[in-house]
Write a structure and sequence with these properties.
Elements (H helix, E strand, L loop, with lengths): L1 H13 L15 E6 L2 E5 L5 E4 L5 E4 L7 H11 L4 E5 L5 H4 L2 H6 L3 E5 H7 L3 E3 L4 E3 L10 E3 L2 E6 L2 E8 L7 E6 L4 E3 L21 H14 L5 E3 L8 H23 L4 H6 L15 H13 L12
Parallel strand pairs: 4-5, 5-6, 6-9, 13-14
Antiparallel strand pairs: 1-2, 2-3, 3-4, 7-8, 10-11, 11-12, 12-13
This protein binds zinc ion.
């Protein structure tokens, strides 16, 4: 039922944020165990990483609020303990929608500084012309970090690593050192769509490439890589994705240098050979985001100030 899940996720992303709540009756939350002590939950919205074992459950992202009961039930099939920590890979509502529910049930929410900053005020996702209201206090991360944080739980070491200006300005990768797993959040869209680069939230194509390179440095041929959307990937598949980003960026940059317009560059179809014509991000929209990422003036003011 992968197709219907994806259609639903795309629909949720495209309709207005406040009403973009999936009907739990229409969503299956499924579990895939990918390494000792690590599982992935698929439902609607961003893929959830789960660390389980003697110290309790830690989840990476939590999809949408109406799905919390189904997500908790799916987690309980792996480990009946409550969720102790939620790590958000970035602020988008299809990854943080369950925060308030899991927080109320006792979880501590961790994320990059800019996730809390953006969730604290109304946001506009420019590319979708979509306003996202400020989140209630109970949904906000209570532990935030600038560069990263490390969790020592379940016999493993989980490095949460900030990658700058990639999908947004608050992305984090999560690396299970012992289990050899990396959750990449939305810096990686695998097979289901071209990636969405949220330029209005501080994303950039060069940051997306840097994030993929950082994950590749941590990976070997046995690493299981959880994308924000799509099936679990290998290092080889992440490499192909990184190469796609570099190829399209190179072609768009050459077009800009040759003083071609966006429409002319889109007409040359620099992303066409990668297929995925019907994903949530169409090839032309992806090319537009790369073009805008390379031509827009750099913003000076950071989203968060540290004291
Ligand atoms: Zn996202």
């Amino acid at each position: 039922m992968r197709t219907s899940r994806l259609a639903l996720a795309a629909l949720a992303l495209l309709s207005s944020a406040a009403s973009a709540q999936p009907d739990p009756a229409k969503v299956d939350v499924t579990v895939e165990r990918i390494a000792p002590g690590v599982a992935v939950l698929f439902g609607a919205g961003g893929n959830i990483g789960l660390s389980y074992g003697e110290d309790g459950n830690i989840i990476v992202d939590d999809q949408f609020a109406p799905l919390t009961d189904k997500i908790a039930a799916a987690i309980a099939t792996v480990d009946p303990d409550p969720v102790r920590f939620v790590v958000n890979t970035h602020w988008h509502f299809d990854h943080t929608g369950g925060n308030e529910n899991f927080g109320r049930r006792g979880a501590v929410i961790l994320a990059h500084d800019n996730v809390r900053t953006r969730m604290s005020t109304e946001q506009l996702i420019e590319a979708l012309n979509q306003k996202v209201p400020a989140s209630p206090k109970g949904a906000l991360p209570v532990v935030t970090f600038a560069q990263g944080v490390t969790l020592h739980l379940n016999g493993d070491t989980l490095h949460v690593i900030h990658v700058a200006n990639a999908h947004t300005d608050g992305d984090a990768l999560v690396h299970w050192q012992k289990a050899n797993v990396i959750h990449m959040g939305d810096t990686f869209f695998h097979k289901v769509s071209f990636p969405f680069i949220d330029l209005g939230s501080g994303g950039s194509v060069d940051g997306m490439i840097a994030a993929a390179n950082q994950a590749l440095k941590l990976a070997n041929d046995a690493t299981r890589i959880i994308p924000g959307h799509g099936p679990v990937a290998s290092k080889q598949e992440l490499t192909a994705y990184r190469d796609m980003l570099v190829d399209v960026r190179t072609k768009v940059a050459a077009g800009i240098k040759a003083k071609r317009t966006l429409a002319q560059i889109q007409a040359s179809a620099p992303a066409a050979r990668y297929g995925m014509p019907n994903g949530f991000m169409k090839p032309a929209a992806f090319v537009e985001s790369v073009y805008k990422s390379l031509t827009r003036p750099k913003k000076v003011a950071p989203a968060a100030h540290r004291h």
